[in-house]
Amino acid sequence: NSKVIQTPRYLVKGQGQKAKMRCIPEKGHPVVFWYQQNKNNEFKFLINFQNQEVLQQIDMTEKRFSAECPSNSPCSLEIQSSEAGDSALYLCASTYSTGQLYFGEGSKLTVL
Amino acid sequence: GEQVEQLPSILRVQEGSSASINCSYEDSASNYFPWYKQEPGENPKLIIDIRSNMERKQIQELIVLLDKKAKRFSLHITDTQPGDSAMYFCAASRNNAPRFGAGTKLSVKP
Q1: What is the tens place of the pLDDT at every residue in A20-70?
Q2: A25: nearest Cα among A70, A86, A64, A62
């Protein structure tokens, strides 16, 4: 069973609506990643954090997404204004440093 | 310089035979190469990985080869079983977020 907890497992939004997903990384893992896996199973890296600081993010994430990993609270990824192309599985993963990623079960977003 | 190419996208083999998946990467500074298995409706799980200080690693029926000069690495599953049927993803990283290949759908026929 995954020790990275993602909620909700499923969410359905209309275009233009906000969509927010949460992730509790595995205990002791300071590095958290968000990936988008589309219907073709392709992974797209979105953003990663070390503790509360953003390490890397892609352009799309910078413009339409907001993400944070506050101390003592779940990490979150929020799409400000959902588009049909955002429908995907959003996977959160954590790791101790540079090595094996431990993935959560994912949040499957459907944008109608 | 961060693309990871993975082939084939679909692989069908007979139970008991070997399956091979090949990946190539662009960033010569990449130093960590994991392989993940993802079953339908589940999250990806690490099955084997290799670091740049090694050329070969084996865990039971899984063998990973790394050719740093050619910037290629591969996964070989010997004696495949129906339970090996899944999506397989390679990835490469350089102390940063791993970039994933497009995946290989492996089907093992009984």
Answers
A1: 999 999 998 999 999 999 999 999 999 999 988 999 888 877 788 999 999
A2: A70
CB contact under 8 A, B96 and A56: yes
Q: Does B44 touch chain A (CB under 8 A)?
A: yes
Mean pLDDT calculated for residue range B1-23: 94
Contact by Cβ (8 Å): B74, B21: yes
In the three-class reduction of DSSP (H, G, I as helix; E, B as strand; rest coil), residue A5 is classed as strand
| Residues of chain B found within 8 Å of residue A55, distances taken between Cβ atoms | 96-97
Burial (CB < 10 A; 0-12, 13-18, 19+), residue B59, is exposed
Rg (CA), chain A: 13
Residues in chain B within 8 Å Cβ distance of A91: 43-44
Q: Is A83 helix (H, G, I), strand (E, B) or coil?
A: coil
Written as six digits, the tokens of A95 are 């790791």
